[in-house]
Write a structure and sequence with these properties.
333 residues; alpha/beta; Quinone Oxidoreductase, Chain A, domain 1; Rossmann fold; 2 domains; 6-stranded parallel β-sheet; 10 helices; 17 strands; 26% helix
Length: 333
């Protein structure tokens, strides 16, 4: 099968992904083989190919926002049949037995594995995955628009939950890429007033078009104190700016898997009065199931720019340089 493979970590400007012919995976017991139709391109993929994340063995096929159809069912499977449309997200597997899994926090499982990170992902024609970690997708989303829901959407939803935002409150979004352009739609559905912070004039304009009540640069203070904020931008300085913008008792949720160092905080100005700074680590299957239902109810509309599989390097370049409104998606022919 054809796949875009990481053979060495280097800047995306140097084309770290190579188009190769590799062996088609064989589904083991409890697994299904998915024929990939579309795969979303995520900022996590960018951090992976550029070597900013630990524990990635090479060669590796990235990609964890997969939409496709079941091509083959392995032994001991019962949830899907050949031809069913399925989605595959970031969480590939968890042990199911540890204290985290037993308490509904499988995203923190020490034995968890992640798609396109520890196991090969969706920048390929086929992908094998445990069937109980695949999703049935709502029918009202075309394949290419469903792909970003599987990470950008799910992680944005978990970040909303961990930010402790409540309907009608004031929410700040720092960075306005794929995840934020989905998150704002859910927040608007909850009647929140949304304030967006982005360096990109193009992204600020996009945010206003999607219902933001205000849009400015990250170092600007909003016209009102925020109840909660979510930081999507992978810049530690932005976390400090968000803490300055939230009101007493407010929460700042850091949604990214990677963040540059956070500068020293001024405790009295930026953290005192029971402000809370917390990370968002992965997501659970329950998060995914809840979000996909909400996305269908809203309904969320993802804006996508589609690239051929062979142009995955260009898609990552465009994400790195903020050239995309919405999400990038690979078409697997």
């Amino acid at each position: 099968m054809k796949a875009m493979v990481i053979t060495g970590f280097k800047p995306v400007e140097e084309n770290p992904l190579e188009l190769r012919e590799v062996a088609r995976p064989v589904p083991g017991p409890g697994e299904i083989l998915v024929r990939v139709k579309y795969c979303g391109v995520c900022h996590t993929d960018l951090h992976t190919v550029e070597g900013e994340l630990p524990g990635v063995s090479l060669p590796r096929i990235p990609g964890h926002q997969v939409v496709g159809t079941v091509e083959q069912c392995g032994q001991e499977t019962s949830l899907f049949r050949k031809g069913d449309r399925v989605g595959v997200a970031w969480l590939y597997q968890a042990c199911g037995q540890c204290r985290f899994c037993r308490s509904g926090r499988e995203n923190l499982c020490l034995q968890s594995r992640f798609t396109g990170y520890q196991v090969d992902g969706g920048y390929a024609e086929y992908l094998a995955v445990p069937e109980n970690f695949a999703y049935e997708l709502p029918e009202n989303f075309p394949d290419e628009q469903a792909a970003p829901l599987l990470c950008a959407g799910i992680i944005g939803y978990r970040a909303l939950r961990l930010s402790r935002i409540r309907p009608g409150e004031k929410l700040g979004l720092y960075g306005f890429g794929a995840s934020a352009h989905v998150t704002i739609q859910v927040a608007a559905h909850w009647k929140c007033r949304v304030y967006v912070f982005s360096r990109s004039p193009k992204h600020r304009k996009h945010a206003l078009a999607l219902g933001a009540g205000w849009a400015g640069k990250p170092d600007e203070l909003p016209p009102d104190k925020l109840d909660s904020a979510i930081v999507f931008a992978p810049a530690g300085e932005v976390a400090r700016l968000a803490l300055r913008a939230v009101d007493r008792g407010g929460t700042v949720a850091l949604a990214g898997i990677y963040l540059s160092p956070i500068p020293e905080l001024d405790y009295g100005r930026e953290l005192y009065h029971e402000k809370c700074l917390r990370s968002v680590a992965n997501a659970t299957r329950q998060d995914g199931a809840e979000f996909l239902k909400i996305a269908a109810d809203v309904p969320v509309r993802t804006e996508v720019q589609v690239y051929p599989l062979a142009e995955a390097n260009r898609a990552l370049y465009d994400i790195k340089h903020s050239l995309i409104n919405g999400a990038a998606v690979l078409r697997i022919d």
